[in-house]
Write a structure and sequence with these properties.
Length: about 375
């Protein structure tokens, strides 16, 4: 039988843990409240506090060649499916230790949930409320652009993509070759732009290929940022032309640019200004895709045909998320239908963005085109 002293110690330990959990939750709630109320607070947090908070996690997880976040998600699924039911069954079967089993299980789940809430708050939620990249980098930009100006930028992006398609290294089958030091080059090219975008300086974690890339393909995901492990991950099954810009995009999230349109724009800027034909090609393709899709909503069918025919056959061949053969086989090797998974992913992303103050949800991605226009015309105006 358990002594009174050991009982007091056990209860005391449990109580201290509950107090610690409550304090962490209250601090996170306060941080979220302040971030919604004060852009000045979030800007200070982003500039001085976030770089300190993110570094230990980046240094720790970058040691591992695999995605720690992906492993943790897999373990969480196993915990929900097997661990929790096993604990409940054990508590029912072993009456003598029922209280201990239930306390341990409850505290373990509470700590997991608190860890997720805390890291999401510190590494994601607060960052949604910083000063926008448009206000920070293009304060004197035009209030709006004409369809003609957007069309002009599209023509420029198409022309650059056509030219770079002939410069990238390929194998004997014409497939683009990715460098072995992809992460090193990504970090180098990102630091190069810290003169213009100061947040891009400092340490950069390594990009990691997701093992469950087929599931990512069903979700229509090219990359994903895990705030709870500070990792940048990419879909290893997508076409090589998408990889450099995707990796840069996810790296932008670790640098504090959590909004998708800003991460997308800065990824393009880093790639385009890298001087590396592969990265430049990937950046121009991404910028071209967003811009052409945008301008198609404003121009005539004749203009659409004209712009589309400007895109070279090689660019069209490269400019795919996954190959046609891969997409055809996808449903036959996965548990759920791609259409079902993709719809669920879209709804989850839409909900997440709106909960974090992005009122237009996934439509906010199109704001990347506004940033590209500011960037294009600022550089054009400053060219002698």
């Amino acid at each position: 039988m358990e002594s009174k002293e050991s009982t007091k110690k056990r209860i005391g330990s449990c109580g201290r843990q509950l107090i610690a959990i409550a304090v962490i939750v209250m601090v996170c709630v306060l941080l979220n409240f302040l971030s919604w109320k004060s852009t000045a607070f979030t800007d200070i947090y982003n500039e001085y506090i976030f770089p300190v908070i993110r570094l230990p996690g980046e240094l720790l997880t970058t040691i591992f060649p695999f995605s720690v976040g992906e492993v943790l998600i897999a373990l969480a699924v196993i915990l929900v499916i097997i661990g929790i039911p096993a604990a409940i069954i054990s508590a029912i079967a072993i009456k003598k230790h029922r209280g201990s089993i239930l306390r341990f299980t409850g505290l373990f789940i509470a700590w997991v949930l608190v860890y997720i809430f805390a890291t999401e708050t510190l590494d994601c939620f607060v960052l949604y409320h910083t000063t926008t990249a448009a206000d920070k980098y293009f304060p004197n930009a035009a209030d709006g652009y004409t369809t003609e100006e957007l069309t002009e930028m599209c023509e420029y992006l198409i022309g650059e993509a056509n030219s770079l398609a002939l410069q990238v290294e390929r194998d004997e089958n014409g497939t683009i070759l990715l460098p072995d030091d992809l992460g090193k080059k990504t970090a180098e090219y990102t630091r190069m732009r810290s003169d213009r975008y100061p947040q891009l300086g400092g340490f950069s974690p390594r990009p990691k290929k997701i093992m469950a890339s087929k599931f990512m393909s069903q979700l229509d995901l090219q990359g994903i940022y895990f705030p709870f492990t500070m990792e940048m991950n990419y879909n290893g099954d997508m076409c090589p032309s998408r990889v450099p810009c995707t990796v840069c995009h996810e790296l932008m999230h670790t640098k504090g640019y959590i909004r998708e349109d800003e991460a997308g724009f800065l990824a393009c800027a880093v790639c385009i200004e890298s001087g590396d034909p592969l990265f430049m090609y990937s950046g121009f393709l991404s910028a071209m895709n967003y811009s052409v899709n945008s301008v198609f909503g404003y121009i005539s069918n004749e203009e659409k045909v004209r712009l589309y025919t400007m895109i070279s056959d090689q660019v069209r061949a490269d400019n795919k998320f996954v190959t046609d053969e891969y997409r055809e086989k996808l449903d036959s090797v996965t548990l759920f239908k791609t259409e079902t998974v993709s719809k669920a992913s879209d709804k989850a992303m839409e909900t997440s963005l709106r909960m974090n103050g992005v009122s237009d949800g996934k439509r906010s991605y199109t704001r990347m085109v506004d940033l590209l226009l500011d960037y294009y015309y600022e550089d054009k105006d400053n060219t002698p």
